Amino acid sequence: MILLKRLIDWIDVRVGVREVVEKELTGYLLPRNINTWFSMGSVLLVIFGIQVLSGILLLIYYVPDADKAFKSVTSIMNDVPFGWLIRMCHAVGSNTMVVVLLLHMLSVLFMGSYKRPRELNWLTGFILFTMVQGISLTGYLLPWSQLSFWATTVATNSANAIPVVGPALVEFLRGSKLVGPATLGRFFALHVALIPAGMIALIGAHLFFLKRTGVSTPPFGLQNTTNQWQGDSYHHEDHPGGIPFFPNYAMEDLRSIFIYLACFLAVVFFDPYLFFPKDAFIPANSLVTPAHIKPEWYFLANYQVLKIFPNELIGLTLQGAAMTFLALLPFVDRGKECHPLKRPLFLLCAIGGLLLWIGLTIWGHYS
Amino acid sequence: MDRIDHMGALFMRHPATVMKSSAALARYVTCCLLGGALFLMAVTPVRADEIVCITCHSALPEKYGEPVKLWKGSVHAENGIACNACHGGDPRDAANAMKKDRGFLGAPKYNNVPEFCGRCHVGVLKDYLSSAHGRALASGGPNCVICHGNHQIVKASLELINEKSCSRCHSYERAKLIRGAMQETEAMVVAIDARIMAFKQVGTDTERMEKELFATRNRFHSLFHNVDVKKVIEESTRIKGELKKIETALAALDQQSHTHKLVGALAVAGALLAALLAHLLRKTFD
Amino acid sequence: MEKGGRRKFLGICLGGCVAGIAAAVLYPVYRYLAPRSGSGATARVEIPEKDVPEGEAKFFEYGGSSAVLVRKRDGSLVALSAVCTHLGCIVQWEKDTQGFLCPCHAGHYTPDGVVTSGPPPKPLTKLPFTVANGSIRIG
Question: Which residue of chain B is at minimal alpha-carbon distance from C10?
Fold first, then answer.
């Protein structure tokens, strides 16, 4: 113990770590009425870490070649010791990441945390959300199974509806007229290099904005639940008399992380096939389309919207409009009130939108 | 019936099924003239729309159109073995598809059917020719399609030996004995097949087992053509021994997935315990 | 001070738990990365030379599967896997045509295992062998 203390002293006099700990951990005060929803960000960081690590491990045995990809994944699943575990963690993790991401976004929505001065937090978070969609979509192709091949064919094909440039865009996305080895090459590069690098940069920006603006105050259990920001000068939102991040809230973060891990491991070990239709284990064949090809569950609503409208352009435009509206929400919703029950119009729209999304997803699943 | 491609994929490389759009227009026009089948291009299944035989014949009346419908439900269709694999001809050139100089064979005469099928099913042909059925062919004995049907040819199974079918020609007694002797082995084959498929659907590499089962089943099913009761019983016993080996491999897989679940339960319990400890520790700071 | 003791105890438990989880993660990762020792290179089969006369083939078990030795008309020997590369049936030796035939879907191979017709996608796998003192050793 004495040795450890001397080591810390040695570092402290040079770098001043105790000051950093004091400022960023034990002296970093959070609102007294902070709740569990605020730990979703930490859970997401852990998930992202697991995805990166399991992804790097998979890269060791995965071969990004249309002739060898399926075989290499089969070999990871069957021959490499614990390969099945690492692959399942990566595949299940990509799904649970979307679940937690949705919870994170919903809690931010209902607690009004996206409101000014946190427009940039929301915007970077929203871009991260679309990047998660992108990394899921590109990763889906890599095992080169029937599911990968045809889901990618359908997904890239929807760009066809864009007037004038549509067909050229589809070909550009695929790198060839049809999904093929060229598509695998570019999706692989996007999945393992470009999108993760972009995500790391955006996570950095997201945390930087959080740090500079300060944690928002949840609107529950307070008399005044309006946004106090004046907008005249930069002002860090402090929480005097709040609870310290370490150890208090760090323990709450840990609790959320372990509860997440328990759920995640339960799926990985007991029913990872929740996310694997049987076409996922048949090698890609460009001449045979499987009967019921469906996108991943989080794209089912988008898929159903495209199917409802006779003209794909209408469906695509609607989706684009909805996404743009959500991305720019803090610029549209400029009210000061944060408590959801005091924002009836917001509550109506949010619950309506959520139900619509769930309804479309279920419809998409059974259609 | 979802064994989509492990067999078919190899055949799919045959030129017959692979063609690209350059010839498509010409094909299209010819077909409209021949069969008025314009709209059919869109509704025929993916693999089939690459072959002119199907594009035209689907639209033709009864005798000429029926084989396509039947074929679609066959084990051949399931594995990508199309018209030209048996009947020859050029599946890419509608105008000349059925010319002799393109290798078109047409339909075989009754007595030539075993030879026709036996070009691929050589082992079965040998067994058949030496059996009572095969020896009686010239004098009106059954050829392949009498039991297996034509075009809608399904995978051989014990179901083919039944009173209704056999008693078209003779009494069912001996056939019943043979079926009885093979019943148990057949049940094993079917059960193993189902278990292998279940493992395959969850990503287990079953290729080796599938091939073993395929080879064993083939040996077993060639017995169907033998009418020698004693030999059937002997061979069935030997084949059962080989099936037992596959069953052992399957049992090992079962054991493995059981172990995974046990480890999983421990992992989940560990995570929950850690969550509980974090929760209790958090409470001490209130 | 009771609270402090409780806190310390829980802290140690949680630390132990996290260490256990770390070990449980590291072990699979280590096994995943560890080089795998090649297995199956053990079995060897010896066959007396006189068992394989000219133009004949001798089938035997090798490495858990079927294999075949052929002495071609020119007297040279070939050792091959007897498993058809199409769907895994066992090929047959056709003495009159001096070639292999797969009875399942009529795949034909030369005595060297090269595909001459039918659906097999690849030639039969060649097996290494040595001849010494009138005995052929495969493997």
Answer: B281
